[in-house]
């Protein structure tokens, strides 16, 4: 498209509303100029032919952006009505759980898929739409805005000044003296002054105009960073249980790392502590002070033959606590759960059924039982069957629920001089029945040994650097755009006996007015008018008759 | 030391009350002639000074309690809610310094007092920290978030002033705007009513225990006891009153509703209704009409900008504390920076809401009244997240 040439000689891109250089309106404008984005030619406002144009225009609209924000907001609310699937007990069927727990509303919640709302395709689609909108809306504005602010000239077309929201014209006795006085006033307010032909523009904090675009870049980086998780290798999230004294390969690390627990400790607050006495009494039980796993991390070092003669090398030891994970390489290992006093070893005594004479004792490691235990030269106990978590299954056969020894039971076999062949006996917790008739041997519990178990989460998240960079850039942009405002004040000669004063800002007009008034204080220049307020007031005056009737006195207004 | 800190909070409360009176004189009273013959109104400045003294005493409470407990007093409902009140006070001082708006003080001070009085309903003793809270991120995350929310609270106050100032609430007017403005008044009165009722029953030593069958995850139940400090309008399903002479619940609720919480809400609504009804009966005008004389001199344009400015200042701080610091801490304590915990989601909702507000300010037609409604709704979302999400929707943040 051809350029539009302004009467000042500047060539503006097609679609420009206000000349980039002198500000003269190039298109039909309302009484006050539309100063948004400096009246630049934005792609979205200029072209609307191809599909690309239409998509571009759709996503560049702030209105569309607000709708997307609003939809994400409402969707997010729906997800908190009942707990998400990840928060319901792990062993229940969600299809039943929601209905049983929350009635018909719960069933609707489940049917609509709200139990997994934040991972649903349409929620993610909304986030993708938001990202697209952030990118397109920013590019559509920032590029031409940058050009317009760079090309702006000090001397402006009169119709640019007079149609600013803050505008005034005054006669002055001495143009030179007034000019210098105002200039000094503006300098005192820390404005940057540019001069041309005896006119000036005072500007400050132009960088604040880039704030929104900077924070949008940060957000886009953050949202893209969060999506990178789907790539393999970027993200590991595994759980592992480690018993005191055990060393286990860390899941998610391809057996590259091993972790040893030198012991898990749980500490509670001292009940005699005066400060917490009341709180502890109200809680009705002890309050935990610390969960700690003393951990040692080993790395597998391969020898000459890969995978065969490898050895473990200690790389780090650390007391893992809540809020204090062990971090090595890109892995972090967190304290997440525990189990105290899990059965670990059981001590038994072999004795005579008849006399109770003890022949000897043996200790069974419940996680790694031996096949048999020699009691003395003649007698031997063999483990015929082992049920770590004993129960009778549907066929009424002894069975085990898991390999965790929550309810261990054994069928022992005995060999010795007192019997011919082998004698069997079933022994569990509070259960002891001979399997063979006329038993000769008996076993009795002599003691148990317990152990703590700690649960750790192994986490690797290579997306974090993107998220941190995104978050930091977002915050910088947000602060840049929120805590500073771009202000411009124009002082321009009118003939040789007066001045035009005009002001523009993107927000906080009251503060701009204060700046203008401070700068012209003590000169002949009258305080410029806020043309929007003026318009409102004249509107109000004609319509305030009934208001007056109500309050009984005229509205004095605050100004 | 803990006791001293409680006393300082009490003093701060009375300072806020004194400031309210001074601001009221400033807003409604006549101007006074000074020595040079000009009419001036210094009551606003006195109110401002008093509010600063109040903030200093409140910070004294905060500092001494911090020293006594060894951690910042923001770890349970009482402590957090009080600090939100303090934060609104700090935010008021900042925005007053910028805009010299005495009317802001007249509305902000009572709201701060209301929030602190509400906080005092919760158990006040110093509590030990559970492991997840034992980190400096407790201070970093919570203090920043509360400060951001406090500043957003000031935008709510300014929005409310705008609505009271501009909406015509004379008797013959009846529309959606007058209804919702009255609704806000009723809401504030409900909080006040709840505080009064709770304290009254506490003072009278009311207590009642109701035993009921609480559900367990696996479908079984166990006998649990619910402590009532207000007479049970609502009780748990098939509950049994254990306290001699105490009344039985009027209505039994299904087990998935927390009967105790529903009961509190009902008392608040009823107490609010009584207060509201009394005011209407005595003055024979809308409650918002009673505030009209105070806001007559207010420049709507200025409070609109003030409300916007408060959001512009508070939003980045809230985002920093409530989302960014929150995510960093969540990564350290809970292994993941984001987990869709209800409190997290509601922080996101708050963020989205104010982000939407800031973008709407770019559009024509959203300045002034629509904007004022939005900042009022925004602060309701914050209070919802504080009260409802903490107490009713169980999650990782339910410490209190």
TrEMBL record, chain A:
<dbReference type="InterPro" id="IPR023494">
    <property type="entry name" value="Cyt_c_bgen_Ccs1/CcsB/ResB"/>
</dbReference>
<dbReference type="GO" id="GO:0017004">
    <property type="term" value="P:cytochrome complex assembly"/>
</dbReference>
<feature type="compositionally biased region" description="Basic and acidic residues">
    <location>
        <begin position="531"/>
        <end position="559"/>
    </location>
</feature>
<keyword id="KW-0472">Membrane</keyword>
<feature type="transmembrane region" description="Helical">
    <location>
        <begin position="213"/>
        <end position="231"/>
    </location>
</feature>
<feature type="transmembrane region" description="Helical">
    <location>
        <begin position="462"/>
        <end position="484"/>
    </location>
</feature>
<feature type="transmembrane region" description="Helical">
    <location>
        <begin position="64"/>
        <end position="82"/>
    </location>
</feature>
<dbReference type="InterPro" id="IPR007816">
    <property type="entry name" value="ResB-like_domain"/>
</dbReference>
<dbReference type="GO" id="GO:0016020">
    <property type="term" value="C:membrane"/>
</dbReference>
<feature type="domain" description="ResB-like">
    <location>
        <begin position="438"/>
        <end position="516"/>
    </location>
</feature>
<feature type="region of interest" description="Disordered">
    <location>
        <begin position="520"/>
        <end position="559"/>
    </location>
</feature>
<feature type="domain" description="ResB-like">
    <location>
        <begin position="62"/>
        <end position="420"/>
    </location>
</feature>
<keyword id="KW-0812">Transmembrane</keyword>
<feature type="transmembrane region" description="Helical">
    <location>
        <begin position="121"/>
        <end position="143"/>
    </location>
</feature>
<keyword id="KW-1133">Transmembrane helix</keyword>
<protein>
    <submittedName>
        <fullName>Cytochrome c biogenesis protein</fullName>
    </submittedName>
</protein>
<dbReference type="Pfam" id="PF05140">
    <property type="entry name" value="ResB"/>
</dbReference>
<keyword id="KW-0201">Cytochrome c-type biogenesis</keyword>
From TrEMBL, chain B:
<dbReference type="GO" id="GO:0017004">
    <property type="term" value="P:cytochrome complex assembly"/>
</dbReference>
<dbReference type="InterPro" id="IPR045062">
    <property type="entry name" value="Cyt_c_biogenesis_CcsA/CcmC"/>
</dbReference>
<protein>
    <submittedName>
        <fullName>Cytochrome c-type biogenesis protein CcsB</fullName>
    </submittedName>
</protein>
<feature type="transmembrane region" description="Helical">
    <location>
        <begin position="104"/>
        <end position="122"/>
    </location>
</feature>
<keyword id="KW-0201">Cytochrome c-type biogenesis</keyword>
<dbReference type="GO" id="GO:0020037">
    <property type="term" value="F:heme binding"/>
</dbReference>
<dbReference type="InterPro" id="IPR017562">
    <property type="entry name" value="Cyt_c_biogenesis_CcsA"/>
</dbReference>
<feature type="transmembrane region" description="Helical">
    <location>
        <begin position="264"/>
        <end position="283"/>
    </location>
</feature>
<feature type="domain" description="Cytochrome c assembly protein">
    <location>
        <begin position="75"/>
        <end position="188"/>
    </location>
</feature>
<feature type="transmembrane region" description="Helical">
    <location>
        <begin position="183"/>
        <end position="206"/>
    </location>
</feature>
<keyword id="KW-0472">Membrane</keyword>
<feature type="domain" description="Cytochrome c assembly protein">
    <location>
        <begin position="269"/>
        <end position="397"/>
    </location>
</feature>
<feature type="transmembrane region" description="Helical">
    <location>
        <begin position="344"/>
        <end position="360"/>
    </location>
</feature>
<dbReference type="GO" id="GO:0005886">
    <property type="term" value="C:plasma membrane"/>
</dbReference>
<feature type="transmembrane region" description="Helical">
    <location>
        <begin position="306"/>
        <end position="332"/>
    </location>
</feature>
<keyword id="KW-1133">Transmembrane helix</keyword>
<feature type="transmembrane region" description="Helical">
    <location>
        <begin position="142"/>
        <end position="163"/>
    </location>
</feature>
<dbReference type="InterPro" id="IPR002541">
    <property type="entry name" value="Cyt_c_assembly"/>
</dbReference>
<dbReference type="Pfam" id="PF01578">
    <property type="entry name" value="Cytochrom_C_asm"/>
</dbReference>
<feature type="transmembrane region" description="Helical">
    <location>
        <begin position="46"/>
        <end position="68"/>
    </location>
</feature>
<feature type="transmembrane region" description="Helical">
    <location>
        <begin position="80"/>
        <end position="97"/>
    </location>
</feature>
<feature type="transmembrane region" description="Helical">
    <location>
        <begin position="372"/>
        <end position="396"/>
    </location>
</feature>
């Amino acid at each position: 498209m051809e350029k539009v040439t302004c009467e000042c000689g500047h060539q503006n891109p097609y679609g420009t509303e206000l000349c980039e250089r002198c500000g003269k309106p190039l298109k039909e404008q309302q009484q006050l100029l539309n100063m948004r984005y400096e009246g630049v030619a934005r792609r979205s406002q200029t072209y609307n032919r191809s599909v690309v144009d239409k998509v571009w225009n759709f996503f560049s609209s702030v209105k569309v952006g607000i709708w997307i924000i609003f939809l994400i907001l409402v969707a997010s609310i729906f997800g908190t009505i009942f707990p998400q699937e990840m928060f319901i007990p792990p062993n229940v069927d969600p299809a039943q759980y929601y209905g049983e727990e929350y009635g018909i509303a719960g069933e609707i919640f489940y049917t609509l898929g709200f139990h997994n709302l934040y991972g649903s395709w349409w929620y993610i689609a909304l986030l993708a739409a938001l990202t697209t909108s952030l990118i397109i809306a920013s590019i559509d504005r920032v590029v031409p805005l940058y050009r317009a602010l760079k090309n702006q000239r000090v001397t402006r077309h009169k119709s640019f000044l007079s149609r600013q929201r803050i505008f005034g014209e005054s006669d002055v006795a001495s143009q030179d003296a007034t000019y210098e006085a105002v200039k000094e006033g503006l300098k005192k307010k820390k404005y940057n002054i540019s001069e041309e032909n005896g006119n000036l523009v005072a500007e400050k904090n132009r960088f604040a105009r880039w704030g929104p675009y900077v924070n949008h870049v940060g957000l886009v980086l953050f949202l893209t960073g969060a999506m990178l998780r789907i790539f393999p290798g970027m993200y590991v999230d595994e759980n592992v249980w480690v018993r005191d004294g055990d060393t286990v390969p860390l899941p998610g690390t391809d057996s590259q790392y091993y972790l040893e627990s030198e012991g898990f400790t749980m500490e509670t607050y001292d009940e005699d502590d005066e400060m917490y006495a009341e709180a502890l009494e109200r809680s009705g039980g002890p309050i935990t002070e610390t969960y700690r796993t003393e951990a040692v991390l080993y790395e597998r070092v391969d020898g000459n033959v890969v995978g065969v003669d490898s050895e473990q090398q200690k790389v780090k030891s650390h007391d893992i606590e809540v809020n204090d994970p062990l971090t090595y390489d890109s892995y972090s290992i967190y304290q997440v759960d525990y189990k105290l006093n899990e059965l670990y070893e059981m001590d038994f005594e072999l004795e005579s059924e008849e006399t109770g004479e003890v022949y000897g004792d043996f200790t069974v490691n419940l996680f790694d039982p031996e096949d048999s235990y020699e009691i003395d030269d003649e007698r031997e106990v063999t483990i015929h069957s082992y049920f770590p978590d004993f129960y009778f299954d549907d066929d009424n056969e002894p069975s085990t629920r898991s390999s965790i020894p929550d309810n261990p039971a054994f069928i022992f076999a005995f060999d010795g001089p007192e019997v011919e062949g082998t004698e069997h006996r079933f022994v569990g917790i509070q259960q002891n029945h001979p399997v063979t008739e006329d038993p000769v041997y008996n076993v009795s519990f002599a003691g148990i040994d317990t152990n703590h178990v700690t649960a750790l989460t192994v986490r690797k998240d290579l997306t974090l650097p993107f998220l941190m960079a995104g978050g930091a850039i977002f915050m910088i942009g947000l602060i840049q755009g929120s805590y500073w405002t771009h202000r411009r004040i124009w002082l321009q000669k009118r003939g040789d006996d007066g001045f035009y004063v005009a002001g523009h800002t993107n927000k906080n007009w009251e503060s701009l007015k204060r700046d203008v008034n401070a700068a012209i204080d003590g000169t002949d220049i009258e305080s410029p008018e806020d043309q929007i307020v003026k318009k409102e007031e004249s509107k109000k005056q004609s319509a305030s008759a009934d208001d007056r009737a109500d309050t009984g006195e005229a509205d004095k207004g605050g100004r | 030391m803990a006791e001293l800190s409680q006393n300082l909070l009490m003093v701060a409360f009375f300072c806020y009350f004194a400031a309210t009176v001074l601001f009221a004189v400033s807003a409604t009273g006549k101007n006074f002639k000074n020595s040079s013959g000009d009419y001036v109104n210094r009551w606003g400045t006195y109110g401002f000074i008093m509010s600063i003294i109040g903030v200093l005493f409140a910070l004294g409470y905060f500092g001494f309690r911090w020293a006594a407990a060894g951690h910042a007093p923001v770890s349970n409902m009482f402590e957090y809610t009080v600090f939100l009140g303090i934060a609104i006070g700090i935010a008021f001082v900042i925005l007053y310094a910028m805009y010299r708006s005495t009317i802001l003080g007249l509305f902000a001070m009572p709201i701060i007092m209301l929030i602190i009085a509400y906080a005092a309903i919760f158990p006040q003793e110093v509590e030990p920290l559970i492991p997840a809270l034992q980190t400096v991120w407790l201070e970093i995350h919570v203090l920043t978030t509360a400060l951001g929310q406090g500043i957003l609270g000031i935008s709510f106050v300014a929005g409310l002033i705008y609505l009271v100032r501009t909406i015509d609430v004379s008797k013959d007017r009846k529309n959606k705007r007058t209804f919702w403005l009255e609704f806000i008044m009723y809401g504030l009165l409900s909080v006040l009513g709840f505080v009064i009722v709770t304290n009254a029953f506490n003072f009278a030593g009311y207590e009642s225990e109701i035993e009921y069958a609480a559900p367990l995850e696996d479908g079984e139940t166990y006998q649990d006891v619910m402590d009532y400090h207000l007479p049970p309008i609502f009780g748990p399903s098939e509950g049994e009153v254990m306290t001699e002479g105490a009344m039985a619940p009027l209505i039994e609720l299904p087990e998935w509703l927390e009967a105790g919480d529903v009961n509190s809400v009902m008392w608040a609504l009823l107490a609010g209704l009584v207060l509201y009804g009394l005011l209407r009966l005595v003055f024979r005008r809308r409650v918002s009409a009673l505030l009209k004389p105070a806001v007559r001199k207010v420049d709507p344009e200025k409070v609109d900008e003030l409300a916007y400015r408060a959001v512009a200042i508070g939003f980045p701080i809230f985002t920093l504390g409530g989302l960014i610091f929150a995510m960093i801490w969540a990564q350290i304590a809970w292994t993941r920076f984001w987990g869709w915990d209800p409190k997290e989601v509601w922080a996101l909702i708050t963020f989205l809401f104010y982000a939407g507000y800031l973008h709407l300010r770019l559009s024509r037609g959203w300045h002034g009244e629509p904007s004022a409604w939005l900042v009022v709704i925004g602060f309701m979302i914050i209070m919802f997240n504080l009260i409802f999400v903490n107490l009713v929707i169980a999650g990782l943040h339910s410490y209190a």
